[in-house]
Design goal:
Layout lengths: L1 E2 L2 E2 L15 H15 L6 E4 L6 H9 L3 E6 L3 H6 L1 H14 L3 E9 L8 E11 L2 E9 L6 H9 L3 H12 L10 H25 L10 H9 L3 E5 L4 E5 L6 H11 L3
Parallel strand pairs: 3-4
Antiparallel strand pairs: 1-2, 4-7, 5-6, 6-7, 8-9
């Protein structure tokens, strides 16, 4: 779980359990800790359809947490969104250009205690065919298009953060037991925290201020050199043709002052 670029939780779910297993408990602990530090902060939880569970939705409603969570499509949702899909198709037939139409529908799965008015429907029609997405939210007062584009779509940036975790070998979970694999995941998370702080604080206003961790590894860390050690000092000799040597030296002085 991320807040922007900040890693909040790194938890390995056993493959034999439900997609959202322990997600409600983790969300509860995290919200409690955040509100201890910032009592009046507004918390928005975003997730894909794997986290669309009654337990999570009801808990967020009771504790004042806004949410945008995807819903897997089904026949009933398709029937309720038929008018929105139809309008998208009609617009496409007139222009032969990709069309997006947004709207709200009322929907409640059989396991939900109440019908949720705010189910966002995004109906997209293009030459490739139809693409309809559904998102449940408890946030009101804005258009469906604005909520989808400016609130829910930000979840996609989290995928880039997960890829950065994989660049730091978080997917090396080859042990037979869960705990060693979870420990490896935590080590990858700690490595990401160091790289993120390096990027956010020490590389600010440089060419690598927004670089992914794989770029930082290749350009600033994974550098060939020669180490010479004697009784008085250790000398690190790098190539004089290293293109980022000025930035490397500046960064080294910041990290090791004096």
């Amino acid at each position: 779980m991320f807040c922007g670029d900040q890693l909040l939780v790194s938890y390995l779910r056993p493959a034999s359990l439900d997609t959202a297993h322990h997600a409600g408990a983790i969300l509860t602990l995290l919200v409690r800790r955040l509100r201890q530090a910032w009592p009046d902060v507004t918390i928005v939880f975003r997730g894909d359809s794997g986290f669309c569970r009654p337990l999570i939705l009801n808990w967020c409603d009771r504790h004042g947490v806004d949410y945008f969570i995807g819903i897997a499509g089904n026949k009933r949702l398709a029937k309720l969104a038929l008018d929105i899909d139809y309008e998208s198709a009609i617009r496409f037939e007139k222009t032969w250009e990709k069309q997006r139409v947004f709207g709200f529908i009322k929907y409640a799965a059989g396991s939900w205690k109440k019908r949720r008015r705010q189910v966002i429907v995004k109906s997209e029609t293009s030459r490739r065919g139809f693409n309809t997405r559904y998102v449940v939210t408890n946030l009101r007062g804005c258009s469906a298009e604005w909520l989808y584009d400016h609130r829910y779509c930000a979840r996609g940036e989290m995928e880039n953060r997960i890829k950065e975790q994989q660049f730091l070998f978080s997917d090396r979970t080859s042990c037979h037991e869960w705990w060693p694999n979870q420990y490896r995941l935590l080590l990858a998370g700690l490595a990401y925290l160091l790289m993120e702080r390096l990027r956010r604080v020490y590389l600010k206003r440089t060419a690598y201020a927004t670089a992914q961790v794989t770029t930082l590894r290749l350009k600033l860390l994974k550098i060939g050199g020669v180490v010479i050690r004697n009784t008085r000092r250790v000398r690190l000799m790098l190539s004089s043709h290293y293109p980022d040597q000025d930035l490397f030296l500046k960064l080294a002085r910041k990290l090791v002052p004096g």
